[in-house]
Amino acid sequence: MKIGFFDDWTLGVVKNDTHIVDVSEVLEGVHAHGPQELIQLVIENWDQVKDAFQNLANVSEGKPLTEVKMRPPIPRPDKIVCMAVNYLEYGQRPMPQIDAFLKDSDCVIGDGDTIILDADAPATIFHHEAELAVIIGKDAEGKVDQKDAMDYVFGYTGFIDVSARNIGPEGKTSFFQVKSWRTFGPMGPFIITKDEIEDPQNVDLAITVNGTGRQSFNTSDMAHSVKECIEFATRQFPLHAGDILSTGTNHQGLGALQDGDTLKLEVGNVGSMTLNVSDSLKREWERGVDEEMAARARNATA
Questions:
Q1: What is the per-residue pLDDT for 31?
Q2: Cα–Cα distance between 280 and 220 in angstroms, integer?
Q3: Does the pLDDT of residue 171 top 70, yes or no?
Q4: At residue 206, does pLDDT exceed 90?
Q5: Mean pLDDT of all residues in 45-67
Q6: In this model, does residue 29 exceed pLDDT 70?
Q7: pLDDT tier for residue 169 given thresholds of 50, 70 and 90
């Protein structure tokens, strides 16, 4: 099943990939302080609501997706854990050590929104990073063994880890300053429940910018699997229902984002979302793929 928020943060079920059905009546009597609390309650109580959601979708026409405004499906997660350097770059680099960083949850935006390249971000370049994001389905208070990891997955969504490169103290890079500017976490367009993805290690992702291809890869190139990533994260801190674990990107095909760009993310059968880019300083870089970055990633220096 695909679910997501639309228009004035109405929760809906996607029907036939063309319409979305309002499921609010199923949730009458549920008291939630905002959409984030509501989606967490839905995730935590999925077994109690999923049949009612599906039944309502079966008998309702819904609204055409072309006529609604999609919102981020997890609007303000408690945690966004992003895996760092987690792809083999089409098998061209040595196995990297597993690593991750936290991205601020206030960076989340949704389909049709605008990525702001902040004037106070003195980046040498801004990049898009297409990623498959895992949505945690239940609390993991201690380390989760890989063999049990999928029990903690609710579903998946698309994520773009926008990066402002080379900001930080002299000679160093600060993930805080590179990764967590406002709007640097586009997410969506929907949550797809895990039963709809047979193998998370076989999902296609692609980004186009102004209609021109950039990134295009499959999660089979992931260095450390979804199961490994969950085990790694939970050995250090708890994960809770509604948390996001984004699984990293293949750096081949990265390119600059700049004022006026329109980029489109496509994630397997999850769906696609489109973002605009705005930069008040009108900074410019060479169009197309950043071959220097691609080479650094292949040579294990990214």
A1: 87
A2: 38
A3: no
A4: yes
A5: 97
A6: yes
A7: confident
DSSP calls for the chain = -EEEEETTTEEEEEETTTEEEE-GGGGTT---SSHHHHHHHHHHTHHHHHHHHHHHHHH---EEGGGS-B--SSSS-S-EEEESS-B-TTTTSPPPPP-EEE--GGGEE-TT-EEE--TT---S-EE--EEEEEEE-S-B-SPPPGGGGGGGEEEEEEEE--EETT-SSTT---HHHHH-STT-EEEEEEEEEGGG-S-TTS-EEEEEETTEEEEEEEGGGBSS-HHHHHHHHHTTS-B-TT-EEE-----TT-BB--TT-EEEEEETTTEEEEEEEE-TT-----SSB-HHHHHHHHTT--
Pairing between β-strand 163-164 and β-strand 126-127 as defined by DSSP bridges: antiparallel
The pLDDT mean for the chain works out to: 96
Confidence band for 97, pLDDT divided at 50, 70 and 90:
very high
Q: Is a pLDDT exceeding 70 seen at residue 244?
A: yes
Q: Distances from the Cα of 178 to the Cαs of 167, 231, 271, in angstroms?
A: 6, 26, 27
Q: Which two tokens stand for residue 60?
A: 């309702």
- With helix as H, strand as E and coil as C, how does 161-209 read? CCEECCCCCCCCCCHHHHHCCCCCEEEEEEEEEHHHCCCCCCCEEEEEE
Q: At what angle do helices 46-59 and 35-44 cross, to 10 degrees?
A: 100
Q: How confident is the model at residue 302 (pLDDT cuts 50, 70, 90)?
A: low
Sheet containing strand 262-267, strands side by side: 114-116, 271-278, 262-267, 204-209, 212-218
Domains of the chain: 2-67 (no CATH), 80-298 (3.90.850.10)
**Mean pLDDT over residues 58-63, rounded?**
97
- How far apart CA 79 and CA 77 sit, in angstroms, is 5
